[in-house]
Specification:
Farnesyl Diphosphate Synthase, 1% strand, 2 domains, 334 residues, 74% helix, mainly alpha, 2 strands, metal ion binding, Polyprenyl_synt, transferase, magnesium
Amino acid sequence: MSAAPLPVSDARLEEALVTGLAEIERRLDLAVRRTSVLEDAPSRHLLVAGGKRMRPALALLAAQLGTGTSEEVLEAAVGVELTHLASLYHDDVMDSAPTRRGAPSAHEVWGNSVAILAGDLLFARASQTVAGLGPEAVRIQAETFERLCVGQLHETLGPRDGEDPVAHHLGVLAGKTGSLIAASAHYGALFAGLTGAQLTAVVEYGERVGIAFQLADDVLDLTSSAEVLGKVPGTDLREGVPTMPVLLLRRAVEAGESDAAGAAIVAALDGDLASPDALADVVAALRAHPVMAQARDMARAWSQEAVRHLDVLPDSPARDALREFADVVVERLA
């Protein structure tokens, strides 16, 4: 039996996750198949490239807090992953990302228009999948889709005059990442019979784990190797994509609370990073700066806050696995 994508120490729980994920993978394949060859290749592009399937796995795990995997849980998990895949097509177009999951991005193969339309097709198929699960499921999908769009819009427009860029970035992460991970946990718990404070706790956990996960990625973009990242470390710096270490450093410099090294890094970030050497130098300077520890601590704080929301749930292997997952999200930073 292959290992589950989330940390699980209970054999029975792991078996339930692995079995459920195999069925979800089968349904995903059916969901993205198109009758036309012209539609099929672009819409299947990211699915066949692979992925951890973290979101459907979280839906399955949350379901184990209640009555377990059901037809509704499986379909909801498929809808969540289709929504995630669709958002990646659009993200790659907006970021001009050349690769995704080790393969050329869809827009590199077919162009921006086809990539955007392929993402739209997957959003439509996600909506069709969720529509069969009832009004509450449709409401969750609609609200999550709205938050994804608003998060991307806020990232594109940037903070308003006078708005704290750090708080703005956290809001972007909540919309673009936290919302869909929260929806995954919400669906699993909802269709497994959780209600009231327990259901709310699982949703709040998912949102905070999602933010912690993305904050950790902000750090890893600077500290990991090109082989691990699948891109040159610091690519976000060159493209002007906001990340938490840089935002924290800029805030400190603007407030006069940074050292000379921090001011020099900010000056370099505002300069020309087109050459590999210039980018490598500023990445090395950031890696050595104390702001990286501050960014790591922020990710850990969000992870710990997520775990605190699980206190209302009874002891179970599933709750233990959710705690372990929150830890693993930030253990990547060690």
